[in-house]
Design goal:
Its EC number is 4.2.1.1. 45% of the residues lie in helices and 17% in strands.
Length: 212
């Protein structure tokens, strides 16, 4: 079932091999045997977000986790298949990353979906369950802002969600231990797609400050 978009992908593969790969051949050769990323980057699956592009990093620098609304389940031991939790575990305990960034963004579909009614989400049961991870933020938004304040709701939901996921990260014993020892740094980012601005959370004042 090949179409125009698939052809573009295939053309991109060819162009990468002929141009980008050749331009960075030494880097890819070095990466062929191992990786040593300095940062675990947790971002949304949104197609408009490109972690390497917005951070100016090369292959091998970021260990990337992407999921709907850049969520982090609180730490728990389980026999279930825990994709995000296992990736965090591997990044911290095996790869020994020095930083963890949780990057939220403007116009986040996951955050918007969390505000919808039970009826509206009835056809997306797994998404609905996943978005329960931001329920504390959602409850605060509904309490503080009315339906006549859609922009405030969106802004608070997206930024508050980043802070909530930083709290979830601190429930991981090995993350808490490393943060307190100063060997691991947690950061919360808020990326505005339409302007390219990135605001970084300041835990001391409880605000996101622009770093552009």
């Amino acid at each position: 079932m090949e179409g125009y978009d698939v052809e573009k992908l295939l053309d991109g593969i060819t162009r990468f091999r002929r141009e980008d790969f050749e331009a960075h051949k030494e880097l890819f050769t070095a990466l062929g045997g191992s990786q040593k990323p300095h940062t675990l980057f947790i971002s949304c699956s949104d197609s408009r977000i490109d972690p390497n592009m917005i951070t100016g990093t090369k292959p091998g620098e970021l260990f990337i986790i992407r999921n709907i609304a850049n969520l982090v389940p609180p730490y728990r031991e389980s026999d279930e298949y825990l994709a995000t939790t296992s990736a965090i575990e591997y990044a911290v305990l095996t790869l020994e990353v020095e930083n963890i960034v949780v990057c939220g963004h403007s116009n986040c579909g996951g955050c918007a979906a969390s505000m919808k009614s039970e009826e509206e989400m009835a056809g997306l049961p797994h998404t609905k369950k996943w978005l329960e991870l931001m329920k504390p933020v959602r409850d605060k938004v509904l309490e503080r802002f009315g339906e006549d304040e859609p922009e405030a709701r969106e802004w608070y939901m997206e930024q508050g969600n980043v802070v909530e996921q930083l709290r979830h990260l601190m429930t991981f014993p090995y993350i808490k231990e490393r943060v307190e020892a100063g060997s691991l740094i947690l950061s919360g980012w808020y990326y505005i797609i339409e302007t390219g601005e990135i605001f970084i959370y300041d835990d001391e004042c409880g605000l996101f400050n622009c770093k552009n």
